[in-house]
Write a structure and sequence with these properties.
Rossmann fold, single chain, five-stranded parallel beta sheet
């Protein structure tokens, strides 16, 4: 898929079972994945290598999701897309605040998460090139 060339997918989720499920699903898609169980670990992981995208739970211990997003944006600007996953009823507000590429409310379908990550890390198809006539020689 090419996300490994831009960096790993960083999953930031405090629930170990959800974190492992997400990691397994994305690794089955051929993606390089790193995980963090709290906000401070997320900052350390993102500092080691710029992630291609971050799957971010907003309700984290030690440092909440909004603070994690702010600190990573301080380092990388808008180069790293965020996919918010949370059980909060205020997910739209949270996703808007951190300028998330996508958001999913828990519980969510794993195929929706995989699609959101794909959309975040794969460039849109170059339709102009696909439909351009071949040069005449």
């Amino acid at each position: 898929m090419g996300a490994t060339a831009k960096g790993p997918i960083l999953i930031v989720e405090d629930d170990a079972s959800i974190r492992e499920l997400l990691r397994d699903a994305l690794e089955q898609e051929g993606l390089d994945v790193v995980t963090a169980s709290d906000g401070e670990q997320a900052i350390v992981c993102a500092g080691r290598q710029r992630p291609a995208a971050i799957v971010l739970d907003m309700g984290l211990p030690l440092l909440d999701g909004a603070s994690v997003a702010d600190r990573i944006r301080d380092q990388y600007g808008d180069l790293v897309p965020f996919i918010v996953v949370t059980a909060s009823r205020r997910i739209e507000e949270a996703a808007s605040r951190i300028r998330a590429a996508r958001y999913l409310t828990k519980p969510f379908d794993i195929t929706d998460l995989v699609a959101a990550v794909r959309d975040a890390v794969e460039p849109p198809p170059d339709t102009a090139r696909e439909h351009a006539p071949s040069p005449v020689v």
